[in-house]
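Slide 14.
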Amino acid sequence: MAFIHDDFLLQSQTAIDLYHGYAKDQPIIDYHSHLPAEDVAADRRFNNLYEIWLEGDHYKWRAMRAAGISEDLCTGDADPYDKYIAWAQTVPQTLRNPLYHWTHLELKRYFGIDELLCEETAQYIWDQANEQLASPEFSACNILERFKVQVVCTTDDPVDDLTHHQKIAQDGVATRIYPTFRPDKAFAVRDVVGFNTWCDSLSQTHGTTVGSFEDLLNALRGRHDFFHSLGGRLSDHGMTCCLANFCDHGTASDIFDRARAGECVSEDEEDQLASFVFLETGRLDAEKGWTKQLHLGPLRNNNTKLFQQAGRDIGCDSMNDGRQVENLSRFLDALALEGNLPKMIVYNMNPKDSMALATMIGNFQDPGIPGKMQYGSGWWYLDTRRGMEEQMDILSSVGLFSRFVGMLTDSRSFLSFTRHEYFRRILCNLVGRDVESGELPNDQILLGNLVENISYNNARDYFGFDLS
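Slide 15: predicted structure.
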């Protein structure tokens, strides 16, 4: 039997029935990804397996470094085929790492390849995949259609002009590609040079000078409006800890003015300005019925030497162990007191915070919006079978599992849509296990509705995308 077979990860008859009957064929709403919109706009064709599979994948780079692979074969300028061979040499060493599952799911689902990737099979797999990639079926848009991807939400800075999103909409691409508003660079005022460069870019994109703090707020509102006009319905923030060091408008304005003048800003002052702007983004989201995503807990760019050599997002980010819950409480409470608390998904990176964050979210549910506050799916280092199961166990214990909006790819690769299959198999196996142990009733309609809703319906109903 092939390693990836019809009942992969499904360990009971109930799990098999639920997956094949209710989860497998559901469309995909990938509400948080890093897919490049320009690739969809150009309907990119991929020249080889390296381009579609290995470009920009920091998960693979971390594994390759752990296997002793040199950096030129990870982020360097080595030949693409040599980089692919280095990955093939690494794969057999990833047993019990989710990369082993993901690798072979992707080879099976996209290319129909059952062979296990290793140095000996690498040439055959390279040739087979590249032959198929030459077909129009493997263009970016056709891949999305083939995997029944109904919506993809990209991750975009307010200074992005979104021309690619406009072209996609004009071209009538079947998959809806919507921008997500990520204004994190508006918070980074201690990097005075970078902050001023970003403000100048915002001025150019928005078409007005960003010379005062009020100008900044107006420009962010204008860009938020523009994202909305192109179908955007989510914002996103990646932060080590939730911001909640609130100050008044005058204090924030003074900090902004000094940063804009090139003066140094203290860590506490940066935190105050960022907290003020963060609250403003919450108000904008609530006003338009958007969903705010908070990605909490990464400690980024830990390896200075590699950061200087290769830059950000290269696999040198880790879990932080700082305090999360009190700041999140203050932030949520401040918006709730004003009546400006938007729908929200909170993802955390460190499992020590999981139960605490899930219980905090539950304090701010809204009777008018079922599942308004979401404890988000397993993310980054928790995007594993164990991490997904623990996330679902915690959500089930302290919230409503039935309202969960399900999985996402969080990926830059067009080969990552099997992550949804992986999640759905784990979901069905988890529910099936509870049935087999007598903890859930063996009622296929009841359980099938649960699985179907988590796989697709909840996300469709929660985000309010235009799917017409």
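Speaker note: The chain has a mean pLDDT of 97.
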